[in-house]
Design goal:
107 residues, 6 helices
Length: 107
């Protein structure tokens, strides 16, 4: 498994690009659906930030949730199976090309 470590601000921007295209109403509905997993306080923080048009903070709340889930998932794996990569971008095509150069053998 490849774990890509990207600076928080880059991840927040990616979250904004992805989720804001949904519109505030659909994002609000999605956050409410996650309430059981987010917990009441984090759900309130995310919805309050969304209501105040503080989309960056809303994304930070969601990223904390996802990071917690990813860390748990990684903790269940053999550490030898994890390859940690640092990047200053989350641009998929660039990362895929880079990973292919490192890990792929073409026959």
């Amino acid at each position: 498994m490849v774990v890509l470590q990207v600076p928080e601000e880059k991840r927040v921007q990616e979250c904004l690009d992805e989720y804001l295209s949904l519109g505030a109403e659909k994002l609000s509905i999605a956050i409410v659906r996650l309430q059981r997993r987010l917990g009441g306080l984090e759900t309130k923080k995310a919805l309050d930030a969304l209501a105040q048009n503080n989309f960056q903070e809303c994304c930070r709340v969601l990223l904390r949730y996802y990071d917690k889930k990813y860390r748990y998932g990684m903790s269940q794996r053999d550490p030898k199976s994890l390859t940690m990569l640092s990047s200053d971008t989350v641009a998929g095509d660039k990362i895929i090309d880079w990973i292919q150069k490192i890990f792929c053998v073409y026959i």
